[in-house]
Design a protein that fits this description.
Oligomer: single chain
Order of helices and strands: HHEEHEEEEHEEEEEHEHEEHEEEH
Largest sheet: 8 strands, mixed
Number of helices: 8
Strand content: 15-25%
């Protein structure tokens, strides 16, 4: 690159003319929280931050110590700024209202503070996922209705990847842009402008250990991805980390699809619609891709519960369209 561009400079330059600074500063807040979490993540082997916290979250999963830390940091960075009317976290049972006497803002923040936390203790890449909505009623302090909005109404979404380097990738509906944290400067610098899913795709990401739990249509689709179901299959390579942000990020850079299908005993899948699937679907669409439950676009699903789950197929459009065809054919035959 011919010049150094910080995330603050980039956000400021690309904010709409009517912006009052509230939305821009909210993105700054998220970047600040990411820096703090990244610092702790990079020192995880040196301080008492690894391992289980001794509690479970609303999903019934063991909370890791870094999970709790990340959730608390995002809350404390954002709760008093006057930019939000409510928050919702994967780690908390109900919405997080903005406490008195802090000023109520115009936006809603939903987030998964630390996706892939089961990988913390084995030093595998993990991440933060976030989405931003507008508050539906500016006269009220924030309600479940403000949080339970379809992904199509997102005004921004992104993720932070904590790996060999820390990257923040986000969209405000004007393309997808990536920033890498320079640890010496303490700044996120523009490193990937206008990210697009490459064609042809390279990888598919799925946990093959669950093959017997999937419907025949999904089993056929996986064979198709491998080039074993008809001549037109793309014969992709398999890459699966087990950390959603890391798998999504690799496929965004190299092209491919991430799959978490419904299972026989989990017909609604496992991925959280509000905190994971929705924001990543918005990012994928802005990068030229598509996200589906297998039957409908993720962005069009109206959430009815804060912790609602969904099957997820996200990546290159051609690959996601094909899984929809397989599932539709199965539905027609069964009817």
């Amino acid at each position: 690159m011919s010049k150094i561009v910080t995330i603050e400079r980039f956000i400021l330059d690309y904010q709409p003319d009517y912006a009052r600074g509230e939305f821009t500063n909210l993105l700054y807040d998220i970047a600040l929280a990411a820096k703090v979490i990244a610092h702790k993540t990079n020192r995880a082997g040196l301080v008492d931050i690894l391992g289980r916290a001794g509690a479970t979250n609303i999903q019934g999963e063991q909370q890791q110590k870094l999970d709790v830390f990340a959730d608390d940091i995002i809350f404390r960075v954002c709760d008093h700024t006057g930019r939000l009317c409510a928050m919702a976290s994967e780690e908390r049972e109900d919405i997080i209202p903005i406490p008195e006497p802090f000023k109520k803002g115009s936006y809603v923040l939903v987030y998964d503070p630390l996706d892939g936390s089961s990988n913390i203790d084995v030093n595998v890449s993990i991440g933060t996922i976030f989405g931003i909505y507008r508050c539906l009623n500016w006269d009220l302090r924030g309600r479940r209705e403000d949080v339970l909005q379809p992904g199509r109404r997102l005004v921004a979404a992104g993720y932070v990847l904590y790996g060999s380097s820390t990257m923040l990738v986000y969209t405000t509906g004007q393309g997808v842009h990536g920033f890498t944290l320079d640890p010496e400067l303490g700044e996120f610098l523009l490193s990937h402008e206008n990210m697009r899913l490459p064609e042809p795709p390279t990888f598919y990401s799925v946990n093959h250990a669950y093959f017997d739990r999937w419907s025949p249509a999904i089993q056929r689709y996986l064979r198709w991805l491998q080039g074993r179901e008809g001549r037109e299959g793309p014969a992709l390579s398999s890459r699966y980390i087990g950390s959603l942000v890391a798998d999504f990020h690799r496929n965004l850079l190299r092209g491919g699809i991430f799959c978490y299908p419904a299972e026989k005993d989990k017909p609604n899948g496992k991925i959280r619609l509000l905190y994971e699937a929705g924001p990543l679907a918005f990012l994928a669409e802005q990068a030229g891709g598509y996200a589906s439950s297998g039957y409908e676009p993720i962005l069009d699903i109206d959430p009815t519960d804060l912790h609602q789950r969904t099957p997820l197929f996200v990546g290159n459009r051609s690959l996601v369209y094909q899984v929809e065809r397989f599932l539709q054919e199965e539905r027609v035959v069964s009817n």
